[in-house]
Give the backbone structure.
Amino acid sequence: MTLYGVELSLCSDAEEVASVIANELVEAARSGQSLVLTGGHTPRRAYELAAEREPDWSAASLWWGDERCVPPEDERSNFRLARESLLDRIEAPPREVQRIRGELGAEEAAREYDDLVRSAARFDYILIGIGPDGHAASLYPGEPTLQERERRAIPAEAKLEPFVDRVTLTVPVLSAAPEVVFIVAGEEKAEAVEKAFARPPGPETPASLIRSTEGRTRVVADAAAASRLSS
């Protein structure tokens, strides 16, 4: 089966997916890279393993691909997930932690993050999940947000639970790194994976629109998530 613009790294299960990503995050942190993190169950495990394998993140710069408009201590917060699973477990914190301040509300938080990203150095490693509907970050199927080409960060309306406003990086920004990596596990993601990576790109599957313009795009998936990619 032809894959559209991506390399597939196939793992046996979700734990192996998390381990592979953890090793990549550790390598990136040690080399002082600027990383964009994502939310979700599988990334949580990857962050836990990365913290175990490298306690010194002082050279790294951390950013987020999207955030819910909730306070940072809210259980729905992507920042809280990374804090609990990574930041609270390491000895030396990153030199820079640039979270999206969702508690400001979608419009103000997006404006603030847009300014931060605009003034930042380029991202080196972008980690992205994919939803069962093919969404990536908080970019949802068929939404006008997919067409944004001027702003780096924008408000977004949630189309899946939890139904809270969000802030997301845009397609060009999520594509602007030498390493763009999708992390995905579980049979419930198999159809979305097939649509995103084995069919021509289109707005009905936002993940299909995100491809590195500077290097390579990879999908690290377990056998269940990649089950519909077999030829």
User: Anything to note?
Assistant: Strands lie at 7-11, 34-37, 61-64, 66-68, 96-98, 125-128, 153-156, 166-169, 179-184, 216-222.
